[in-house]
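pinned: reference chain
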Amino acid sequence: MSIRTPLRPLARVLEARAKGENPDVIERENLRLRHEEMRDKSRLRAEGRLLVLGLCFMSAFLLVGVRMGQVAATVPAEPKAAATGTPILAQRADIVDRNGRILATNRVTHSLYAQPQEMIDPVHAAKELARIFPDLEEERLIRDFTGSRKFLWIKKKIAPEQQQAVHDIGEPGLLFGPREERLYPNGKLAAHVLGGTKFGREGVMSAEIVGQFGIEKARDDYLSNPANGDKPLQLSLDLTVQSTVREVLYGGMRMLDAKGAAAVLMDIHTGEIISLVSLPDFDPNSRPSFAAKNPEDNPRFNRTVQGVYELGSTFKIFAAAQAMELGLAGPDTEIPATPPFRWGKYTIGEFEGHNYGPTLSLSGMIVKSSNVATAHVAQEIGVERQKAFLKQLGFFEPVPVELAEAPAGKPLLPPNWSELSTLTIGFGHGLSASPLHLATAYASLLNGGTLVEPTLIKREGYTPKGERIVSEEVSAASRQMLREVVTDPEGTASFAEVTGYKVGGKTGTADKPKPTGGYYDDKTITTFASVFPTDKPKYVLIVSLDEPIETSGSKPRRTAGWTAVPVAAEVIRRTAPLMGLRPEIESPAQAGITLTSTQ
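pinned: its structure tokens
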């Protein structure tokens, strides 16, 4: 506590009076000293405040300088806006063929949206947008732009030239959002395998890409996983082979005036699908909507897995193989063949009333494609054993392949599998399955007799471990029978011979069922199921045509031997070299020359 000095101290006043001095001088002097003291204290206080303020400013400048140095030294990055919920991830893994060639990838595009409250001339903007995008209605745009809406999508995807045209309008209320979309650089090629995508969750700055059809949907978990962004999904397809098969199949379909066509080329040992074609097809980059009463008329309908048909005489080899496996017959065993085969009130005859004699060998049954002989064999096999064998071959369930549509391709089995069903199924009628079912069954039967599982994913270093279907001896005998179908002059597939590749196969011609019941007289599904080379089997090829007709002769021909077989032969002729198969050319014997020495 400070004690203030009085301005007129009594002692000094008395002393001044004693000396005759004026006491007021003392008061003025003390007042001056007091003011000087107060001034000094104020100056010191101000100097202290200035010092503190200067230190604060210096600290602030140092902080800003350090931060500016940090920003200058870092890599530029786009700022991320804070948002609630799960972020939208648009990056999607590529899809490539077995050789690494791109089948599906991504490209950057833009969306177009509007904020009407930011617009300067909404009527002009609506007119210009209707000019750039003919599918937009000018009147509706004007209503939206002049109403109470604060945000609206105009186009989810626009081309670069469209973006530039919108930019040239000069309207600040028209804005672009970045988008990543799926690109299929090969167009229609492998469309049914790849399928397509669509936008899932959408935001202004990004959109989620989700699979909609085909393998894009079946393997969506892998493709949409950001961890796999730099690891493409590698398919078993060979792009070159796929292109060749489609070209040949399309030409055959057009030449034979067929409604549709399908082809499956499969590695007989690994189950890898090298080519899968369904026609008509579509461009997965656009995928226009298509409404049809009959699903088969929709180009997105995948005939190889969704199309289940009676596959006709291609089934006869299963009856022959099972009979050999059970020890009921061998290739040379004679089978009754006199038509007709009677079962109760039903009779089974041959195509166009043929009569192949009283008996046929088991091999002859396949070569001549005898319904009657096959019915006798199927009767010996019996209902339960036939069902068990066909179930082993996969004809009871959809094919387990990586396609979203595969579960829809469940075979149509007889509701009451009677002995009559066994007889007709023996020669391919009464059970409907897809071409991919048939390819899988042929591969399992003819590769040495072990079950294969079809796949569209490339298998590196894969060792087949399927259960045994038939013995190796039965498998080899079955291949030899199919080879004779091609080489025997009376065989049904003589047009399938491709020099150097030892093609074997079986034809199948089935009348198409009517929606109201019964069968058409002039509409067929023709199929050729083949294996090559038969001595060292590598591949199975299935070619199927819907309602083909061959008109070069005096009357129309609708059987597989005249339709599916020549198309399949051309496919093999053109694709076998692409897959590394060298033709084995047998040198003709030189007449009159006998080799006596190798010197």
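why pinned: The CA atoms of residues 211 and 220 lie 6 Å apart. The chain has 17 helices and 18 strands.
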